[in-house]
Amino acid sequence: MDERNLAGCRVLVVEDDYSIAAALAEELADQTAIVIGPAPSVERALKLVDEAARLDLAVLDVNLRGEEVYPVADVLAERGIPFVLVTGYDRHTIRARYLQECILEKPVGTAAVLSALRRLPR
């Protein structure tokens, strides 16, 4: 299992639960990654994607207060930016297009998310 360093990686965090988003952002910063966000909504996430000069990786919570994150996933996929999907629902609820992506089921710790990010292709 190849786990790369996250130092200097620009990581978009899309998560509507403040405590989860803050913990993940803190852990990423401890790894000297550059955190973009966190974004609690699709609208905010899309704005951050548009404004970012560069994005390397992303963590996307599938359900943002009833709003699905797929518009953000679509843009990232089009741009070739790898991402991890995090969901509190069963895997079968993930859109077929994204079943090949890294999917983590909640509850998931930040260590598991960081490990998944390190394994993404860059």
From TrEMBL:
Keywords annotated in UniProt: Phosphoprotein
Any one biological process term the GO annotation gives: phosphorelay signal transduction system
InterPro entries registered for this protein in UniProt: CheY-like_superfamily, Sig_transdc_resp-reg_receiver
Keyword Ligase: no
Gene3D superfamilies to which the protein is assigned, alphabetical: 3.40.50.2300
Domain Response regulatory as annotated: residue spans: 10-121
Domain of life: Bacteria
Name listed for the protein in its UniProt record: Response regulatory domain-containing protein
Species of the source: Luteimonas chenhongjianii
